[in-house]
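task queued by scheduler; priority normal; single chain, no ligands, no partner chains; default sampling; output format set to C-alpha cells
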Amino acid sequence: MKSHFFNALKGMGMGMAEVIPGVSGGTIAFITGIYERLINVIKAIGPDLIHALRKEGIKGAWKTLDGNFLVSLISGMLIGIVVGVFLITYLLATYPLLVWSYFFGLILVSAWIVGKQISYWNGQIIFIFTIGAAIAYFITVAIPASGNPALWYVFLCGSIAVSALLLPGISGSFILLLLGMYTYIIPTVKEALKTFELDKLIILGFFGAGMLVGMAIFSRVISWSFKYYKDLTLALLTGFLLGSLNKIWPWQEVLATMEKDSGEIVVVFSKSVMPATFAGLENNFLYGNEPQILGCVMLMAAGFLTIFLSELLANKFSNK
C-alpha cells in the first residue's frame, strides 16, 4: 500500500510537470527512480500484452502491464494534470520568477544525480553528453511555429509531444509551444474537463490517440537504448537536462506575446538574461523587472533540497 501511495505521488509530479512548458514529466520519472520501469510498462502495450492475455488471461495481462504500478501512477498523473492546469498555471502567472527558480534548482541537481549513474566517462560519453545538451538548448531558443487546428495536426502533435514526455529535460508542453499548439491544446483540455463539450472532447480524443501511438513507438526505442547502450543513453539524457536549463532560467525578457480568443495574453517567446539586465527592462510582460534575487536563490535551494531529500528517502526505503 505504501509503495502505491508513493507511486501515485510520483505520477502526480509527472502530471503537473507536463502542463508546464520547460519542465518534463520524463525528468520527474527519472529523478524519482521509476523511469526504466515506466518505459518497460509502456513498451509492453502491444504484442506482448496480447500474447499474455491469450496465454494467461487477465491475470497474465495485468502482470505484463505491471498493473498495480500503472494504475497508481496514472491515478496520480490525472490528479497532477488537473492541479497543474488550474493551480500551477495560476502560480506561474502570479509568481513566475519564484516558480521557475524552484524548477531550476530541481532540474540542476537532477542532472547531477542522473550523470553520476554513468559508470565511466570517456571521449564518446562526453561527445554524446554534449550533443544532448546542444539539442535541448537549441529547442529552448527555437522560434515557435504557427499552430494548426486540423485534427490530423492535433494527432501528430500528440505523438511528438509524448515522445518528448519520455525524454528527461525535454518538455512535452514546450514542444507543443514550438509547434504552435500549446495555447490551443491546454485551454481545450481545461474546457473539456469543465464543460465536457463534444467538440472539445473530440480534439482531446485525437490528441490522446496521437499520444498512444507516439508512446508505443518511442518507448521501444528508449528501452532498446537502455538495454544495449545504457551509459551512452544516460549521458544523452544528462545533456538534455542541462541544455534545458536555459528555458527554466527565471530571469526572462519577453520577446513575443499572443492574445487568445478569451482575451488572455500569454507569453509565446522569451530569452534568458542576467538579473542586472532584467532589472533594466521596461514593459516586460508578466515577469516585470524586479529580480527578487533573494527569493529566487531560496527557491532554487528548495528545489535542490526537494530532490536531495527525495533521493535519501528513496534509498532508505529501498534498503529496507
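post-processing summary
- The longest strand covers residues 252-259.
- The longest helix spans residues 198-228.
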